Structure formats: C-alpha cells, structure tokens
Amino acid sequence: MYDAVIVGAGPAGITAALYLARSGCSVLLFENLTPGGQVLLTEKLENYPGYPQGIKGYELADQFAAHLADLNSIERPQGEVSSITGNAGDFTIKAEAGEDEYHARVVLVCSGARHRTLGLEKEDAFIGRGVSYCAICDGNFYRNQVVAVAGGGNSALEETLYLANIASKVHLIHRRNAFRGYQVYQDRIAANDKVEVHLSTVIEALEGEKELTGLALKNVATGAQEILPVHGLFIYVGFIPQTGFLPEAVERDHQGFIVTDTEMRTNVPGIFAAGDIRSKLCRQVITAAGDGATAAQAAFVFLEQLDG
Ligand code: NAP
Hints:
This protein is an alpha/beta fold. Helix content is about 20%, strand content about 30%. It starts with a strand and ends with a helix. NADP nicotinamide-adenine-dinucleotide phosphate binds near residues 47, 118, 151 and 236.
C-alpha cells in the first residue's frame, strides 16, 4: 500500500512526487516511457522564470527528473495505467492492461493531454509519411523542404517559427481570421519571410498516394479552393485530456478536462488532479508545476485526516 499513486511524470506529476516524498510519503510515480511529458515536445521555453535566455524543453525535463534521483521513497514504474477503482484509503490501480496491480491511499492524476487530430482521411496512414504532431521530433526530416503547420494557438505559432529555421518554407494554416497564440509570436511570424500565413483556411483533404504530397485547402471566407504542394504537415490543433482510466464519478468539464477546486481536489475524496489535465485557463509548465505542489500539499493533509 503506497501513500500516493501519481499518474503521469510531466511537470505536475514530478513536482507532486517531489513534495510528497519530502513530506515522508511513499510514492509510486507512473511514467509513460520518459519523464517530462509535453515539455519534451517543446523546442525552447522562453517564459520559465530563472532562464532569461530560455531553456530547451528536454533540458528542463532532465532537470526535473534529476531532482527525483535521490529520493528513495519514490518508485517509478514505466507503463500505462488502465483503471482506478476503490475509495479513499484503498484505491486499486491497474496498469499494463490489468497485468500489474497496485494499492494506494490517495491518487493524483497528472496524466496531461495528447494531441488532437484533424480527423482527415489518410491522416493516420500518413503519420511518418508526411504527417507529424511533433516538429522537434520530425522537423529535421524536412530540411530545405516545404512544410505546413495547422493551428492557431501557441503551439502552432512556436513550432512554425522552429520549422522556419529548418524548412525552405512554412505555410501556417488557421481556420479563423485571428490567432489565439501570443502576440510576440505573431509579430515574429509576420516578420519571417519564410512563413506564409493562410487565415480563414481549412484543410479539406490530404493529397498523395503513399505519402503526403499536398493539401486541399478551402478559404472559408471566399470559398476559394486550391491544392497546396507540401512535403510535410505538422498538426497543432490542441490537446485531448487523458482520463480514460478514471472512474466515471470524477467530474469533468464539457471538453473532458477534470474539474477541481483551488486545492486540486476532485469531487471524489482522495483523488486529486494537477496540470494540463485540469479544467483551467492557463496550461503552462510553470502552472503545471504549481498545481503539482498544491495537489501534493492537499493530498498530504488528506492523508493525515485519514490517519485520524
Ligand atoms: P490551443 O491553444 O487549444 O489551440 C488550438 C488551435 O487549434 C486553435 O487555434 C484552434 O482554432 C485550432 N483547432 C482546434 N481544432 C481544430 C480543428 N479541428 N481544425 C483546425 N483547427 C483546429 O492548443 P495549443 O496551441 O496546443 O496550446 C495548448 C495550451 O498550451 C494553451 O493553453 C497554450 O497557451 C499553452 N502553450 C503555451 C506555450 C507557451 O507559453 N510558450 C506554448 C505552447 C502551448 P481556434 O483558434 O479557431 O479555436
């Protein structure tokens, strides 16, 4: 029986593990492959305090993970949690399709979110053949080639700028006539002559037989259609919360993100949530870490109450 099981080893989960372990709790921290979460998919963070020159995503993830290295009360199995059942004081956590079973007195859900797809025919089939959701992972395959980015949030804008350093040209395609990403990125994009912006434009189809060769675009304002030849398409159209393993009883918002109070408590006693998985306005590395600290503190108080 662990004091706490933490699902997800991104900034929220790692911070929660650190705080709970330092409070003397036994912790099981589930990580899916490598620690870091979405930080690993970010080329450079320019808004994390303490790094005025910015820091590479993988470097920050390494530093987060290194912070856990000497804490012996944290066990770190790799694997995917498949279900959580039971009640405060004795939750059963199954992982790896039910093959592994663990017990914990409280659960902290820090499982973050996965990329959303455009839902186009051939989108799946073209993954690795022109379609990607990670510019840092795959951008180099498109050196000096023409690529497109879909989306209008901070991820799309940041990765457009990243790809502009690699590709010969980047077409940024956004369905509305205004971006939701930061103005500072919009200004850099406007000043970058390698980037061509297509506003009010949707991708209707992916062209190509065995690999991506182009995009069928439609301007939703004018109705104009065109085929845009590209070698690669990087899709950044938001994220979907990873909550499939959670009991139905845990309240979620209309998009599926977990509803918590300000102390990261869900409506189910003993289950806490932190980071991008939460229903909230601001999804940043710094806010995920902050959530993790708050959730750990609230969980610690809850554990003390369980002890009576
Ligand atoms: P996001 O902010 O949710 O933006 C998703 C974008 O995709 C929106 O522009 C949206 O269009 C578009 N979109 C959604 N579904 C679509 C569809 N089916 N077809 C075409 N376009 C679609 O997601 P994100 O950019 O990944 O960012 C996620 C969170 O992380 C945000 O809170 C963001 O601020 C944060 N973030 C911060 C930084 C940073 O601070 N440096 C970097 C990256 C991400 P509409 O605009 O029309 O809705």
